[in-house]
Every structure is written in C-alpha cells, then in structure tokens.
Amino acid sequence: MRLYAEHLEIWHGQSHIENIPRLRGSGNHHIQYRHIIDWLVRKPGAFENYRYRSDLFPTSRFRMAYDELKQHHVVSKASKEYLLILKLAARENEAAVDEALRLLLDRNRPISAESVESLVLSGQKPAPATDVTIPAVVLHDYDCLLAGVTA
User: Fold this and answer.
1) So what's the pLDDT on residue 149?
2) Could you state, in chain order, the average pLDDT of each consecutive group of 10 residues for the chain (151 residues)?
3) Are 112 and 78 in contact (CB under 8 A)?
4) In terms of domains, do 82 and 14 share one?
C-alpha cells in the first residue's frame, strides 16, 4: 500500500491492483461495488434502501439503465436485474457493459441482464459517440433570407 496526498495505491507483490481516492474528514465514503456485489445479488431487496446506493452507479448510463428498469418493472424485479448487470460489469468488463447499455438505450431496446450479457459476449459495439454527421448547408436558403424572399 502506498499513500499519496490525493490517493491510495493498492499493490499485491509487483502488481498494481487499484487506486482509491484519499478522503479527508468525517462522513466521507468510497464504496467499490465489486467488493459487495455478491452479497447484494443474494439480497436484492437491500439495494433499494442501501445507504450508499449512489456509489453503485459507476457511470451515468448505469443510472439511466436502472431508471429504465424501474419504469418497466416493479422495484424488486428492477433491482434484481440491475444487480445482475452490475455483477456482469464486475466479472467481465465495466466499459463493455457501459457500451452495451449505451447501445440498448440509444436504440430504445428493453434492458435486461440477459440482453446486456449477450451484447458484451458478442463484442458488438455501438458507433462511437464522436461520429457526427453534419448535412451539407444549402447557401441559397441564406441568400433568400437576406434578400427577403421565401424559398
């Protein structure tokens, strides 16, 4: 373990395991969902009233997925599905699960642990968010506006 001014590094032998932000003062917390996900999957009812639930949304897409699940299912079913998605992120790859959630949300497809897992295992990736298509500008329309003529 190495302690720095802004973070704590966890090492096992020569392998760097994790960086944890250094929290000063009282009442601060930093919960790693990977450490408690197995317990939460066994007791999904505990998720809804979990004191540090906001720490269990690694990205905003995970939060959007949970909100989407709550709209289409009862709270207990939504919590169970979300926890299975979170467990998949802990076991496989958080970034891949995040991309699968982006694909499902962008296409307005129903979100479930099964659909996310199939996308992660298939390796299907959505188009990069930086791919932007801008249609060509028709300058004649602007000329008409300046001349006071409607096209």
Assistant:
1) 66
2) 88 88 82 88 85 90 95 91 95 93 92 94 77 83 78 52
3) no
4) no
Pair (24, 89) in one structural domain: no
Question: Nearest CA to 124 among 143, 145, 96, 148?
Answer: 96
23 is in which domain, residue-wise? 1-30
**Which residue in the block uniquely carries the two structure tokens 């298509």?**
133
Confirm if 8 and 18 have CB atoms less than 8 A apart.
Answer: no
pLDDT at 150: 61
pLDDT for 23 = 82
| DSSP character at residue 20 | E
Tell me the DSSP string of 96-132. Answer: HHHHHHHHHHHTTPPP-HHHHHHHHHHT--PPPTT--
Contact yes or no for 68/100 (Cβ under 8 A):
no
Question: Looking at the 3D structure of the chain, how many domains does it have?
Answer: 2
- Take residue 24 and report the two structure tokens written for it: 């000063």
What does each C-alpha distance from 107 to 28, 96, 100, 102, 122 come to in angstroms?
A: 38, 17, 11, 8, 17
CA distances from 80 to 41, 44, 63 (A): 7, 5, 14
H or E element at residue 44 = none
Q: Is 18 in the same domain as 61?
A: no
